[in-house]
Amino acid sequence: MVKARIQKIVFEAGQFELSEWLNDLGKEREGLDLDRIQRACELSEQAEQKAVAMGAGWPSGRSSYYLGLEIADLLRTFQVDENGLIAAIVYRAARENQITVQHIRNQFGDEVSSIVEGVLKMAAISSIHIRKNEVVLGETSDQVEQAKKMLVALVDDIRVALIKLAERTCAIRAVGNSDRKKQIRLAQEVSEIYAPLAHRLGIGQLKWELEDLAFRYTEPDSYKRIASLLDEKRTARDQYIESVIEVLASKLDLVNLEASLAGRAKHICSIWKKMSRKGIAFSEVYDVRAIRVLVASPDDCYRALGVVHNIWRNIPNEFDDYIANPKDNGYQSLHTAVIGPEGKVLEVQIRTEAMHHEAEYGVCAHWTYKDNASHEKGERYERRLAWLRQVIEWQDEVKNFPDSANEMLANVSLDRVYLFTPEGHVIDMPPGATPVDFAYKVHTEIGHRCRGAKVNGKIVPLNHALMSGDHVEVITAEEAMPRREWLHTHLGYVTTSKAKAKIQSWFGLRERQKNLEEGKRLVEAERAQLGIDGQQYVEVAEAFEFESEDEFLVALGRGDLQLSDVAEWLAGNELDIRQTSQLDLALDAQQGAVPIEGLGGRPHQIATCCDPIVGDSIVGIIDDDGVVGVHTQDCVEVMQGDAYGRLMRLSWRDDAQAVFLVDLEVQAYDRSGLLFDITALFVNESINVMMMHSVTNKPAQRVDLTMTIEVGSLRVLIKVLEMMQKIPNVVSARRCAR
pTM for this one? Predict the structure, then answer.
């Protein structure tokens, strides 16, 4: 059972004793490794001392070490486990760059470092402009809602959310001496984001404190007025509650119903919300005078309710049964308002001890990672965490979340990632979105001029997959010039249809002649890369169902046609790739069926003059011994054989397969690590290298590489050549004749 601690600890130098705190923690929580927790405290303290000595202390003047301890101490109330406490202690030091996450991982393991990383990502929420209906990227955006969505997207471990809630609680407790601007900004952040999160986690203890402290700074006049009214009537109200408890306790004893009764404090912010929503005066707020009744079982709740209604007349439409119909955050209780003694309105809440425990501590009331947690409670925690991942909006607290259709929450779209712009706004995109997609989301012209990107301050490739919480900055050039390879799906530069359409539109607006010339250049470049001679386009144009060569070339140059598809067709219809003798296609009886049709049962032999492979157009020439020589259709021997009438029409079987050798030629500017990058490509693509030779020209700082590799398909060859040309310093990569 979680129990709130009354003791108030001052976390300041000279007033805090670590050994006493650890000793108290050990008595309260058996099984904790206090030595490990002490190491975390010492690491945080030493990191801060070193930072201060170097003039790099926390600019606010606060101590990251003592704040970490204060956060951990607050989390003790919620039974956060050992790793969670350690993460809380070192988090602020990591936030202030006094220690690295990697150092935390080395010292305390992956689980602690993962929690710290999660809280660090959530910390980015503080940089969001907390405004509704703000124009972001040319569209109206509710940045509060975007912040909430991002928050949910980042929470994979409930301890991450709890540490952040505790940290914000400590922050708003300490903001009293700060300037007015900081007070308002922090209060808005807490009231708009973190107090609702505490409510949705069912942690009433933190929710009420966060709301009241935030209200104190956002509405100081209203706060002081209501606080004054509560203080003025406190004595009379306390006497009234004592008399009510005495009456009710005696009636419950008469029916042998054991119960614990207490007055229930009404929070200032809650009172103000109710007054504002209903347009009523302070004196008309029902639950300023309120009592709570705790009993043993749900059945006892309803028995106690009957006793209350027998004593005092209930007010119509002021009864809520949250036991039969729990709130989305798991809250259960009976609420009723009655006309009590002296004709004054009295609110009565009735619940079991377990329900009260749940209402105060929410998800913290049952941790699945505790050894003694029951299976039922474990399942309940998992359902709560799954529910948290579905939350996308927090309704206004003044509505008290009535059981109606309006309280039903929309499902979180987990197929979205939430990103920061350099200005601190939040935008959402599909998962897998890249910096190029982001650039086109920001503005079409930014996309056209995109040349690079920084994610979280570090340069990344343009096909880098963005993650929720990333800060993205696009690096642009003066000239608008999208890259055509961005449209190549397998390279992964663009994943959104919007960005792809804008890139295609840019190429589509270019002059026809430029598109035609670009298409011609692309075809010739592919032919050169594959080692194919010729400059005819009629056959390839017809293959892609274009009426003329020009229409085909214009479409390719404009980006309407995928270059990879054209390259595959060229390779399959014009490429003449040879294989080595160790992969001879002349299969004997032990190797299986002959992969050639049309032999008529005659013996055959693959001709060494042209070495046909699977995919080539082939014919047979019958020699004097009756053996059929298999040649490519354009082989010189075929032309001579035709004169003697010894040709046979042959074809490959549909299921014929082969692995064949290809010679490649690579030209590059010499640099350290070039050969490593090239061979790493082959390793990643599972390609066997049979031979590699290099010739270096030192004066020109150039290197020519020739190599022989095994490939299993033309698509693989095309992909390898394209990827090789992306390696830094590589000038060209092409297939060459063997």
Answer: 0.47
